[in-house]
Amino acid sequence: LNLNPRQFQQQELSNLMWALTTAKRPDERVFDFVVESIVLSSQSKNNRKEQMLMPQEWSIPLYCLAKTGISSGREEVLLPFVKELMDNEPGFLERFKPQEL
Fold it and tell me: How far apart are CA 40 and CA 52, in angstroms?
């Protein structure tokens, strides 16, 4: 996609994946764009010591990739990155609220 990922909030990108998955209209290019955008954004936030994404903003893309079966290799970037957050981001798991999915 020829879009600038900085034009979107992370929750908006996660919601886009959720909407496409729920409508049973997954789009691999959109999913790739979303995953790449949220990883890059989080890396730059981490470098600036800003608050990382909320857990729901990570769980939605993971759910969508699993639900749709799209396997473009992006999950190989996303899964280790989320594991790193779970292991090292203070309070990450405590902020996770399953009822908000």
Answer: 12
Give the C-alpha separation, 60 to 55, whole Å.
9
- Give me the DSSP letters along 68-98: H---SSTHHHHHHHHHHHHHHSTTTTTT--G
Q: What is the pLDDT along the chain (101 residues), one digit of tens a residue?
A: 677 767 788 888 889 999 999 999 999 998 988 888 888 877 665 554 555 567 777 788 888 988 998 887 777 878 887 888 788 877 777 776 665 54
Spatial distance between the Cα atoms of 17 and 24, rounded to a whole number of angstroms: 11
Residue 57 near residue 95, CB atoms below 8 Å = no
Q: C-alpha 74: how far from its chain's center? A: 10
Q: How many CA atoms lie within 13 A of 21 on its CB side?
A: 18
Residue whose entry in the numeric block shows the structure tokens 């981490």: 46
Angstrom distance (rounded) from CA 28 to CA 72: 7
